[in-house]
Amino acid sequence: MKTAIVIFPGINRERDMARAVKTVSGSDPVMVWHQETSLPKCDVAIVPGGFSFGDYLRCGAIAAQSPIMADIAREADKGLTVIGICNGFQILTEARLLPGSLLRNRDLRFLCKDTYLRVERADTRFTRAYEQGQVLCVPIAHGEGNYFADEDELTKLEGEGQVLFRYCEQFGTLSESGNPNGSINHIAGVMNQAGNVFGMMPHPEDLIDPTRGGTDGRALFESVLERAA
Amino acid sequence: MKAVVHVMLKPGVLDPQGKAICHALDHMGFDGVEEVRQGKVFEIELKGRDAATAKHDLDAMCRRLLANTVIESYTIDVES
After folding, report:
1. Contact A50/A34 with Cβ under 8 angstroms?
2. CATH number of the domain that residue A155 is part of
3. Whose CB has fewer CB within 10 Å in chain B, the N or C terminal residue?
């Protein structure tokens, strides 16, 4: 199985991502610079977190216009598995590969803390190593993670089961206090309608190794990398 | 030719920055400020186009980069 990690100027989580991929799959990912016009042959493309282009204009807006993104869109259309984490999620929404958009956090603060997430579906290629309803503790680190979709889009998203993770309290209850950034319907991660593109604001790549904070993120990588094997 | 593009969050999209500014104005003693919405202004210098082409191109720039039409609307003014 081959994984490509896409790098833009200002991205800073690509090494953690590469380490997570290597730890779970056993093989090193290929790092791809944003000015490339095509992806190498791969089964999974990952857009990691950071501050691409300094978050100028809107988070992810300029990266979404990079040459590599056109090829990611073409390959995603053909079924390639694509994952965006944090800034990567923002980039995928700006590229319209995922629905909705990420607004400023409700309380205007940059949030860097652990959050609880509830697994909404365990029958997708991204979450099949989790159990439905399982509660994870995964850190967030963002200023613009307040997920928004208009009413029609939201109805569609919920109806099609595209929400894979929601912010929650420790035992899985949804509440305002368990929703760190004000995301609509507590949404922390969504996939596209076809089920091959997924994005989330929290950082599962931080939680791969039991000696470094826990392993709650590992099953995401196991879900994806096992399928692509 | 100079163009001015305004980009605003669509009505119904929460604007936490506008809200914070509104509260600040209230605390400063400005009465009756009911709502503040924050947007962006772009001043764009264009050459080699007539007004119609300029508008057409600016519209494409807005749709593709300057605005995120999921959450924002835009207006274009071309100054002759």
Report:
1. no
2. 3.40.50.880
3. C
ipTM here: 0.87
- pLDDT, residue A229, reads 44
Q: Is A142 a catalytic residue?
A: no
Please name the member of A105, A107, A148 whose beta carbon is closest to the beta carbon of B71. A148
What is the spatial distance between Cα B56 and Cα B76, in angstroms, rounded to a whole number? 10
Q: Which of the residues A86, A120, A144, A186 is marked catalytic?
A: A86
pTM: 0.95
Pick left, alpha or beta for residue A54 (phi over 0 → left; psi -120 to 50 → alpha; otherwise beta): left
Test mutation, A58, A90, A153, chain B, max B CBs within 10 A: A58
Query: What is the set of domains in chain B, with CATH numbers?
Result: 2-79 (3.30.1280.10)
* Total tally of structural domains belonging to chain A: 1
For residue A159, the enclosing domain spans 3-228
Q: Taking CB atoms and an 8 Å cutoff, what residues of chain A touch B13? A: 103, 148
Which residue bears the tokens 């989330």? Answer: A200
**pLDDT score at A91:** 98
Segment A28-42 shows an average pLDDT of 97
Distance from CA of A69 to the nearest CA of B (A): 13
Question: Could you tell me how far CA B45 lies from the centroid of its own chain?
Answer: 17
